[in-house]
Amino acid sequence: MRSLASEIIVYTEQQKEELKLKMPQKKITAAPNAVLFKNEMSCDTATEVNDIIYVGRLIADKKPLLLYHGFKKVLKELPEATKLVIIGNGPERAKLLELSKKDGIEHRVFIPGEVTKASLLKEYYKKSLVSASPGYVGLSITQSLGYGVPMIIARDENHSPELEAVKDGFNAKFFNSNDEDSLAQGLISFFENKEKWLKLRKEIVEDCSIRYSIEAMTATFINLLK
Fold first, then answer.
1. Does residue 226 carry a pLDDT above 80?
2. Pfam families given for it (predicted)?
3. Cα dist from 156 to 31, 68, 127, 186, 188, whole Å
C-alpha cells in the first residue's frame, strides 16, 4: 500500500528517516501524536507541588503495581504532603485500592478512576512534580509534557512511538525496568532536585508545543492539501 501512495505519513521523525532508507523515492513526512492544543498547554503550578501522577489504563502491561510498590518503599523519605495519584480504570484498580487499604496508606494514594474532564486533569498535573510510566510509555507522555511535568520512565520496555518526545535529563529520567528500588530512587531524585524541575516546566511546555501540539500534528495533513 505504501508503494501506491504519493505521500506517506508516519508517526515519528525516526520512522520517517528509517522509511526513507527503504523508499528514497517517496515523499515521507511525520505527524506526531498529540492530545493538547497549544493554548491548552500550561506550566502553571499549585501552591504546593508534591504529588506523583500516573495517567493511563490500569492493566498489567502498564505496571501500576510496580509504581505503587516503588512509592511505598520511599514513602517516609518523601514530603508528608506527597500523594501518589493514579488516574485510570482497569483490572489493576481493585488491587491497588485493596493494597493501599491493607498497607494503611490509603490517605497517601489517591485512585479516583477515569478522569475525562480536561480542567480537572489539569489541576492534578499542576500539583504533580513528576509523572510516571512504570510500564511501556504511551500517549500520556505528551499530555504530561504539555503541562510541564517531567516523566520517570522504565528503560527497557516495548514503548510506543511517543517515546521520541523524551529528552533524558530535560523532560524525563529513566529507571531500570521491573526494579522497584531503581524506581524508588528515581522518585527521590526528582524531589531532591525539585527546584531544577520546577524551573524547567516552562521550557518543557515550550518544547512540547513546538513538537507535540495538535497544531504540529495537523500541520502535516494541512500542508498535504495545499
1. no
2. Glycos_transf_1
3. 25, 19, 28, 15, 21
Residue with cell 483490572: 91
**pTM surpassing 0.85?**
yes
What would the pLDDT profile of 15-58 be if each residue is shown by its tens digit?
899 999 999 998 999 888 899 999 999 998 988 999 999 999 99
Query: Up-side HSE of residue 178: CA atoms within 13 Å toward CB?
Result: 5
Residue 117 has pLDDT above 80, yes or no: yes
The CATH number covering residue 121 comes to 3.40.50.2000
Same domain membership, residue 62 and residue 153: yes
- CA dihedral (54, 57, 59, 65) in degrees, to 10, reads 10
Residues 18 and 114 in one domain: no
Shared domain for 77 and 89, answered yes or no, is: yes
- Counting the structural domains of the chain, the total is 2
Q: Range of 12's domain?
A: 2-33+213-225
Asked whether 183 and 66 are in contact (CB, 8 A), the reply is yes
Assess whether 124 and 221 both reside in one domain: no
